[in-house]
Write the structure tokens for this entry.
Amino acid sequence: MIGVMVLVFFGLLALSVPVGHVLVIASGAAIMSSEGLPLMIVAQQMYQQTQSFPMLALPFFILAGSLMMSGRLGQNLIDFATALVQRFRGGLASVTVVGSMVFGGVSGSAVADATALGSMLIPWQKREGYPAGFVAANNSAAASIAILIPPSIPLILYSLVSGESVGALFLAGVLPGVALTIAFVLVCNISARLRGFPHQRQPFDWGRFGKLFLQAAPALAMPILILVLLRFGIATPTEVSVLAVLYSLAAGVLFYRDMTWRRFAEAVISAGIATGVVMLVIMASAAVGWIMTFVQAPQAFAEWCLQTLQEPWLIVLAMLAIMLVTGMFIDLPAAILLLGPIFVPLAQQIGFDLLQLGIVMVLALAVGLYTPPVGTTLFISSSIARVSIVQAARELWPYYLAAMTVVLLFSYVPALTLR
């Protein structure tokens, strides 16, 4: 049964069928290949997965991000990030990195980050003399920071498969997000020095910086408010997601004063489409997860690792290798929902903290966002920069080095996982 599912899964992926549909068809084919199991199981598992109150947090967090990203806020955040880092070597490229961290607290989506920031910053950076391949690589890698800063959709999905607290995961995601930001800023700085990128020396204007900070303050405050409400048990994740929508509406109506009925309707439609895509993957993954549990695949995998690799550090390394390879071919939400049920029992057996595992999974799978052959943010950034995927991929090796350093640190240093 598992063999049929795996064969159908990779066969349809090779044909570029959307991963949500692939999961449904593969699980259906697996059930049909077995004896005595009704096909109705697939529908039952898909429906049952939606009957979860915490699941309501997903559409509301997505809607909050859509409302925030669709107004003047985007330009305000870019201006704030520019004032913060432009004066340093590689400052124009660093604006993208810092901007991704700031945007992550609003959108929680790497794809939204790559599109919004890339469309605004890549043409400007090219005009200033930066190579098109480099700015495309920089934008594609920097966008991965967004999925670590609260509200993070991948971390919410991990909480569904692991049972870990959403608030704890959000708090633990802040430090790796900051660490990746620092690492990528260093890549921009060193690359600018070695390759002689244009540099504009400008004195730091505290007055202008203060003004820009105030303009960006509503967006900068949102992830902090989310963390405070969850950390101190003031509200549940679902309640916080609704409050985030109300906060976004209030910011658009009262502070920026650019909220219109048309913009609201567009944000709702956009959030609805994004939610539909994610929910299909979640529902289909439930059917696949039931099949793996039925044939005891997680237990068999854990037993094999314990008998073959034995040492916990080797098992963690093997999990990292699987995550990195999986991230190259499968979208991040689907990868978390597929690998989570396999890795969580294994982590428990070797004493690997589940909170730390969630952070490591998102960090490692995020590398796949800018790694060929799928590389969603890489394709988006290359398209905006009007360069080939190959040209952009050639510029990515220092980003891979920086990202893997952060991944290994958070994999083997438990103290870095905030609680």
